[in-house]
Write a structure and sequence with these properties.
This protein is mainly α. It has helices at residues 3-20, 25-41, 43-50, 56-70, 74-85, 92-97.
Length: 98
């Protein structure tokens, strides 16, 4: 499965959550864009988020702290946690564009 196909599946799930919870879809996009930008410009963050040698709990804590600092809404934080767990943070940029 291509990265774009995976991103589209996550985007659809996030869209469904937004509709169900009557959440601000534009805010989701803003939060994801901000995170994707930070991930692409901060090499140390990208390495820590994806490196196999970093324990899962540490990776999750790092991403949670970054999401908090960015002021991400709860739904986006949950999505970032799932992407971190599944080692698919690389999809953040495509998700932001979806």
């Amino acid at each position: 499965m291509s990265l774009r196909t995976s991103a589209n599946r996550y985007a659809k799930a996030l869209f469904d959550v937004a509709l169900h919870e009557k959440a601000d879809l534009a805010r989701f996009g803003t939060d994801l864009s901000g995170f994707a930008e930070l991930l692409s410009t901060n090499r140390e963050l990208a390495i820590a988020a994806e490196r196999a040698g970093v324990p899962d709990t540490a990776r999750m804590a790092i991403i949670d702290q970054v999401a908090d600092k960015l002021g991400a809404v709860a739904q986006v934080k949950k999505l970032l946690a799932i992407l971190t767990r599944d080692r698919k943070l690389v999809l953040a940029k495509d998700l932001a564009e979806s």
